[in-house]
Description:
The chain is an alpha+beta fold. Helix content is 29%, strand content 15%. The chain has two domains: 19-103 and 302-342, Phosphorylase Kinase, domain 1; 108-288, Transferase(Phosphotransferase), domain 1.
Amino acid sequence: MGGCEFKFRGSSDDSQMTLNNFELISVVGQGGFGKVYKARLIKTRNLVVALKVMSKVRVIQKKSVSSVMNELQILSTLRHEFIINIISAFQDRCSLYLAMDFLAGGDLRFHLCKFRKFSEAITKHIAICIIIGLDYIHSNGIIHRDIKPENLVFDSQGYLRITDFGIARIWKPQNSHETSGTPGYMAPEVMCRQNHGVAVDYFALGIIIHECILGKRPYTGKSRQEIRDQIIAKQAAITEVPQGWSVEAISFANALMQRKPQSRLGCNGPEEVKNHPWFKNIKWTDYEKKHIGSPFIPDEKLENYLKSNQLESLEDQSILHSEQVQQQFFGYEHLHQLNGIPLYVPPIVSPRTPNLRMQLKKEQ
């Protein structure tokens, strides 16, 4: 995997984090840049983490250097019980490593594929977890922009957390050029290259609820253009209340899926989302403290793992010999530490910054 290791600047001693600090247990996911491993941090209370290993060659080939650097920068500023939290980040000459909370319950996509639909009680629980996570993210001036089932992962108690901040951005009024996202969950204003704000994340939430209710997304197609044409052609809506569902649930989903952001529930902030009649009996503070039992507990024997636990690196890595190329990853490091020893710090809710909320009504 390469022999060039990079020391953490600012450490109180000469210690450094490397792959040797971890015992790889199994592969729990695979993405465009590499694999995610369940791993054990050997010298720190045997802490089990999710270790994301990214090939620098693949990152460069996909022109995603800014994305992986951006994800680290954002995650380094956030800590909360309803998002994935970073434990450490480091690199060697060939790879980037990001150690995060290990969540044992599998992602929402895995469970949607297994069950296809969910009950109203489970769907409401899913929505509440996402809303709490989005409230925290937005309150810190950040738009996630890629809320989808693959980026929502259950912990062992059945609570969802938001993951993957690769295309998240600090909100700014002029951002029409930032059109990244996943077709099918991407808000119309992003798809059509318009300025956008926190309402894009609530649109994605609406699509997810539609999927939980009916077992499918409202906008589908083989290409980004096909999905864009559908969004332009019709307003998504659930027109009938399925058996076992309330009118309030359908009303909530439809309010989130409004194509015009200024008409969309959530455009004016999280309180109007939380105050929707569907949540009239919800004690949000208790939910934030996870005092409410989840109606959905992932199977303890869940084995959503790939078979191999070996690190693989098959690309031509000759470009990585250039120090100019390596400089693109300068600063890819992060470490919670105490006296120079890596130490996991439990999630702490950071103080909220009011600047984004003040702009919510002005963003469109």
